Structure formats: structure tokens, C-alpha cells
Amino acid sequence: MNSAQPIIALLTDFGLRDHYVGVMKGVALGICPDVTFVDLTHDIPAQDVLAGALELDAAYRYFPPGTIFLAVVDPGVGSARRAIAIDVGEFRCVGPDNGLFTVLVDRHPPKTAVELTDPRFARPVVSRTFEGRDRFAPAAAWLASGRSVSDLGRPAGTLVRLEIPRAQLSHDGAVGAVLRVDRFGNLITNLDQSVLDRVGADVAVEVAGHRVPRMVGTYAEAARGAICALVGSSGHLEIALNGGSAADALAAGRGTTVYLRRQT
Fold it and tell me: Is the C-alpha dihedral spanning 181, 182, 185, 187 positive or negative?
């Protein structure tokens, strides 16, 4: 079931200082004037495809069925990398075929995936440095206007995928890694609730040489200035510092190893 009002949710690394996001919306409005835009974020670190994939995964499930995700984190713009549209049933996605949709399609295998090859659904001239404006925004707007993904081009076949670190169970708990750092400096890991359930409730967390002896339910349960561990809103283990940045305090970031140790 699709949402009554067409929605395009945008995710980019463009920031808001320049005209890039605004002009993409302008192009889309010229095709589908009644579309509603939602800005997921435009603060993905420049050219960081994995960060974009993880932010998209954290957000998409909270949108109404029928939402179109227009995601552009595209270090290969103008190269031989493909432009694609994907239909996963409840949602559709438009963007570069560079792994940006890896986590989403892991959870929802595509029903249809096409390469954006039909020139009717792009601007007459496509810039080699701004396909977001000239190819992706028009394609998303045509989908919002009622076109199907299969209308937009030829079958895409196998999509590019990112290698995303997976948590591993160990003899005394589990080993994971920090996948992203939010603006508060919280270290968000790949240790999700299913891993925590298998390891057990009585665990200690170790990260960057620091041992967190117990899990908490909220940031405020830790003393101000103390490091704590908890399951955050994404359903993943986070390491946080009450009133500050755990990333700064621990000199930790993406890729830092995180251990869950069963208490004995």
C-alpha cells in the first residue's frame, strides 16, 4: 500500500551551504508538483558511501509505504558506475550503484532493479559532475508521479555491494566494531540486540582499552562524565559519555574493535 501523498526522502553528502540540494528539489517539483520532501540528512561525510548506507538503514523503516529514497553519495559521479532505481516492495530507491543501498537490500531483496538508461526520464543534458540534478532527481520525481521502476530503464542485474563488518560470537562473548559516530560522539556498533540476547545480560563492554562494567538503560543512568554502554534507538549497542563525546574521550571511531565479555 502506497502513501497517499508522494514522498521523496533525500540523503546526500552535499551539505546545505551550496545550491545542490535545493536545485534537486526544484527539478523534481517541475515534474511532480505535489511531492513532499523529507531531508534525512545532507551531512554524510564527503564521499563516504558506507556512512550513507548506514544512515539510510537507520531511517528507512520509519517512513510510510511508497516512500522514494533519493540517495546521492557518489564519489564515482561521471564514471562508468551505473545509475539505478530499485523497487523493494514497500519502498523505492534511486541513486548510484556503488553499494549505497547495501543494507536496505540485504533486508529487503529487490523485486525490480533497473539501470537508468531511458533518456525520457532524465534532463535533456546530463552533467558528468551533477547527476543528482540531471538524472537521479528526475527519476525519483517520475516515480512519485506514478511511473514504475521498470519504466525507467533496462534490468540492472547484480548490484554493487559493500563489505560491512559483522559481529562474531566468541567463546566468552562477542566481538564487534564501531560502525558510525553520531554528532553527539556516541559510538554505534554492529552488535545488535540479537547478539546481546545470545551473549546474555551479564556482560562487560571493552572498547579502546576502556572497560565498561555494566549496561545502562539510558544515558542519564551513568554519572555525568562517565562512559556507559546501552542499546540505542537503532537497536544496536552504543558506547556513550554522559555529557560529552565518547569518540573524543576514547580516541575511537569507525573500525574500533568492541568486545562483549560475559561476567564470571
Answer: negative
